[in-house]
Amino acid sequence: MAFDVDNPAPLIEPPRARTSRTPKVTRGNFEMQAWLFMRLSGIVLVLLVVGHLLIQLVLDGGVSKVNFAFVAGRWASPFWMTWDLLMLWLAMLHGANGLRVIINDYAERDGTRFWLKTLLYTATVFTVLLGTLVIFTFDPNIR
After folding, report:
1. How many CB atoms are located within 10 Å of the residue 134 CB?
2. 8 A C-beta contact, residue 138 and residue 72
3. Which of 2, 26, 36, 80 has the largest CB neighbor count within 10 A?
């Protein structure tokens, strides 16, 4: 690294040069919001999951008591429906956002990246909608 008399700052080469295969990803406001969402949703998820495990396993007598009647009793309360719905939505969106970043980092071709993200978004929407439908339409009197 040589110093120039007119410019005292050394010239630092970029870690890797852009090629025609390098994806042109704009890191705008969305990426910052996605980064922030990951941190906040992670904190909330830790609280929800640890609370869920403590309540289910320690206070309610363990896994052996979980059956259809147990779930029906829990989901009779809007509090537990909201708790489970929030866990479902946050976990799916948190995981999908993480996989989106991994796809952006490792999928080299634009077509591959497009189809992987399409599959990811489809699976995420399907799971969130189906899970939400199950929580809100659960019928404890099914026969």
Report:
1. 12
2. yes
3. 80
